[in-house]
Amino acid sequence: MIDKNIILDAALHTAEWFVANQVHNRLDANSGRFPWSTSLEKGVHSMTTGWDSGCSLMGLLAAWKRTGYERYLQAAERAGHYIMSLQIMDPRMKLYYGAFREVTPQSTEFCPRDSASAAWALTWLYNATKNPEYLDRAVIYGNWLMEYGMFEGWPRWAVLTDGQDHFYGRGSFQSGCGLFFYDLFKATHDLRYIERGMKPIAEIYCRDFIREDGSVIVRREIFTNALSKSKHMADIIELGMHNFNDDFGAAMLMQAAELFGKEEYNEYALRFARYLMRVQDPDGGFGKGRFPSAVPQALMYFHDLGIKYNDDELLSARDRTLEALLAMQFKNTGSPLLDGAFPAEEKPGEMISGTRATMYALSALLHVESDQSGVWLGRHNEPFRDPLSDPEAPQPVFTW
Q1: What is the rounded CA–CA span in Å between residue 145 and residue 139?
Q2: In this structure, what is the dihedral angle of CA atoms 277, 283, 284, 289, given to the nearest 10 degrees?
Q3: How far is CA 52 from the centre of its chain?
Q4: What's the CA angle centered on 383, arms 3 and 156, to 5 degrees?
Q5: What angle do CA 92, 95, 100 make, to 5 degrees?
Q6: How far apart are the C-alpha atoms of 296 and 307, rounded to whole Å?
Q7: To the nearest 10°, the Cα dihedral for 102, 108, 112, 114?
Q8: Could you tell me how far CA 273 lies from the centroid of its own chain?
Q9: pLDDT tens digits for 327-355?
Q10: Are 241 and 345 a contacting pair, CB within 8 Å?
């Protein structure tokens, strides 16, 4: 594998991009947001929403954990406060209470999977700071997701709060909600988040969304479970991208395998990783370079599964993918809008940054570089341990 100092330098270059480009003017309603896309020609194209502010926050927490640099934690907290401004806290809105509006506090729509990333980030912000408000906000959302945001064990697609009809389809990329439920369980010890959250998601993902060849079925109909035949959304970037970027579905399966002691889940994750190897571009990208966000996710899967199974083919794919990711990073452009960031989806070869790939790259680079624990998607996070049957687990102290 490439020298770890090179990997760490690239990761911190990315972390500094987030710090340099975050809005932190308290008089600006965008405070805490990051650019979603930038270019030398147009500057900032647009700003992050709730879910990508959350995933950026989580990458910054990993960088803070790795370095101890307070500016990364401060940037993460600023992002967390923007996320909290999106949460619906009006008790009159019972059907939506606790969800996070998609883009701004004025938005009338939200996607439960995206809200889960926002709440997931607050869970990790609580782990880092022990500020109870962060966990309280995440719990409120976790309870909403269980009660109103799922149908027969699977998250809903999109919800509209202004009287318009919702989007009812089932997407493979919603599988990552299982990791949010797991981390919320670890923070609260509330078993409902496993019973009604992670467990059905893991089972349904394997049963309904992963083909024999490892490819994913991106969309099914909600009530019939039939494959979607609609052409209405067939070519939009999100659906094309999610053929390669599973939004942490495989990571969820690896965590479920450990929690439930069910190796079958690892085998499904491995099936997807081998599919990614088969369809990967010769230069390490995906979809002829159109989907850079798939590169850092594939890197983590090749790394974790390659180590787990001592699989030379997977580890070779990891090294090739790591080289590709490092080559994608913008360097020496002369602009803080680009230096340290990674390319935008659907813009191969263009000098346009994209935060989807950038935030995942930050986490992936730190993931393969270090053995740190207590961070988002950390391979060395403390596993679940039942004090009843594990004498090395922290035992309760009965004082009174």
Answers
A1: 10
A2: -110
A3: 8
A4: 95
A5: 90
A6: 17
A7: -10
A8: 17
A9: 999 999 999 999 999 999 988 889 999 99
A10: yes
